[in-house]
Inverse folding.
């Protein structure tokens, strides 16, 4: 099974600053999909951004962008102009088109936003 | 308008009991999932299911069983509950293939005493 690693259990950022959350994964597949989910204290899982592996262009969604490095198997999330509402657990996820449509999640990074 | 719903949201029960958590999605998705999130927030896949295939994580005890009466529902039955089963359980659904994200339910916090 694919493994997804988030090496930063906790991160903090000053409000209005930029923070980058790291994610690496292990796979032998060439085609796959990557996602970042946010889980605020309400515990609802919310999709933040996604990336198709065959696309070289990094995905962006407003203040959220990714740095996708396929050769390095790295998929980091950058949050610009951090807001208090960004405080949450962030999970990186890998979706394989080949193994029963499974999603593989990292262990999460808890982000604190300091006012 | 709720896309993926779960009931109940909170469940407190005693060891040894049998309980069920219901999940329904109104998105027309063909694949549904159950996850367990422990106190450290680790999100662990338990099952994925579409109308053709059930994939079980081999680490899941056979006290846990998914039951799907139809494509829109995937219920989770748990027999002989143990203290270690206390966690938040999430149901999710997605289109079966490709660039489709999972939609998650609100979670069910299960506490076994």
């Amino acid at each position: 099974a694919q493994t997804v690693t988030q090496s930063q259990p906790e991160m903090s950022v000053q409000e209005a600053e930029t923070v980058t959350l790291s994610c690496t994964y292990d796979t032998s597949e060439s085609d796959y999909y990557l996602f970042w989910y946010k889980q605020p204290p309400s515990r609802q899982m919310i999709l933040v951004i996604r990336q198709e592996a065959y696309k070289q262009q990094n995905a962006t969604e407003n203040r959220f962008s990714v740095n996708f490095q396929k050769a390095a198997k790295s998929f980091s999330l950058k949050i610009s102009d951090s807001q208090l509402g960004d405080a949450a657990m962030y999970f990186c996820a890998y979706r394989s088109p080949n193994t029963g449509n499974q999603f593989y999640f990292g262990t999460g990074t808890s982000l604190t936003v300091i006012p | 308008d709720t896309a993926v719903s779960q009931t109940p949201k909170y469940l407190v029960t005693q060891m040894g009991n049998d309980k069920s958590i219901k999940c329904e999605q109104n998105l027309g998705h063909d694949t549904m999932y159950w996850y367990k999130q422990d106190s450290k927030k680790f999100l662990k896949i338990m099952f994925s299911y579409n109308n053709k295939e059930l994939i079980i994580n081999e680490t899941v005890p056979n006290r846990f069983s998914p039951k799907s009466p139809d494509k829109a529902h995937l219920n989770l039955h748990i027999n002989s509950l143990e203290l270690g089963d206390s966690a938040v359980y999430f149901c999710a659904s997605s289109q079966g293939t490709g660039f489709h994200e999972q939609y998650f339910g609100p979670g069910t916090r299960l506490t076994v005493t």
